[in-house]
Amino acid sequence: MDEPTSTFSFLGLTFTWTTVLSTLLAMTVVVLLAVFLTRKVAIRPSRGQNVIEYVLDFVRGILGDQLPSNLARQFGLYSFTLFLFLVVSNEMGLLLQVKTASDVTLIKSPTADPLIAFSLAIMSIMLANATGIKTLGLGGYLKNMFLKPYAALFPLNFVEQVTNFLTLALRLFGNIFAGELMLNLLASMAFSLHGFGWIIALPLEMAWQAFSLLIGGIQAYVFVMLTAVFTAQLSGEE
């Protein structure tokens, strides 16, 4: 049975309140974190500045392993922002879920919604393709994309571009959605078992939540890394 949802229409399009509110909350958290951790930037960094600089260096390391220095600099801000948004979004539903009296979920992980996962994947793939065209020119981009290493492999190269997009989106969505689903099932088990059922369900819930927190961070890393890898491939800089 599908989970009850609340929707609204705008300019002929239908939106889900859960997706809109969850995404806005994740964006707000990212902005507030960035402002709070960098409000007093100094040569002798504070703890907050150390945290944001560590994340920035971590993302630079991901890009530096996959892209030449000029492209790594160009993708630095985008990848840093994307990584922060993914970490917050992936973990949000594990730590906070808000439901109405009618059991409609208002707040959960935005990336547990396939529309958000696919939107992020489309954005990253389009940026990777645009970078390839800018770097190689349209002719060089098409040759690099479809005719390498041999023209006879064109069908496989075309399928690869489609699967790259699906891989990026489905890996993110599947892992985050499965984590939240399992937590909800464990919570339901705790309430459905009579007596001391919570004694069994609570340790399982805590263990799975810790595992899901780890998976959320790994998926943010994998998404940014694969974006860099696809960009390198399409730019001929692999």
Automatic annotation (TrEMBL):
* GO BP annotation list: proton motive force-driven plasma membrane ATP synthesis
A Pfam family matched by this chain, by name? ATP-synt_A
Question: Which SUPFAM superfamilies does this UniProt record tie to the protein?
Answer: F1F0 ATP synthase subunit A
What keywords appear on the UniProt entry? ATP synthesis, Cell membrane, CF(0), Hydrogen ion transport, Ion transport, Membrane, Transmembrane, Transmembrane helix, Transport
The coiled-coil regions, if any, are none
For this chain, one GO molecular function annotation is: proton-transporting ATP synthase activity, rotational mechanism
Localization per Swiss-Prot or TrEMBL: Cell membrane; Membrane
Membrane topology, as annotated, equals:
Multi-pass membrane protein
Q: Which GO terms describe its cellular component?
A: plasma membrane; proton-transporting ATP synthase complex
Q: From what superkingdom does this record's organism come?
A: Bacteria
Instruction: Mark the transmembrane ranges.
Output: 15-37, 75-96, 116-138, 150-173, 185-204, 211-232
Q: Which NCBIfam families does the UniProt record give?
A: ATP_synt_6_or_A
Q: What does this protein do?
A: Key component of the proton channel; it plays a direct role in the translocation of protons across the membrane.
Family of the protein in this entry: Belongs to the ATPase A chain family.
User: PANTHER family from the xrefs?
Assistant: ATP SYNTHASE SUBUNIT A, CHLOROPLASTIC (PTHR42823)
Q: What is this protein called?
A: ATP synthase subunit a
Origin organism is Fructobacillus durionis
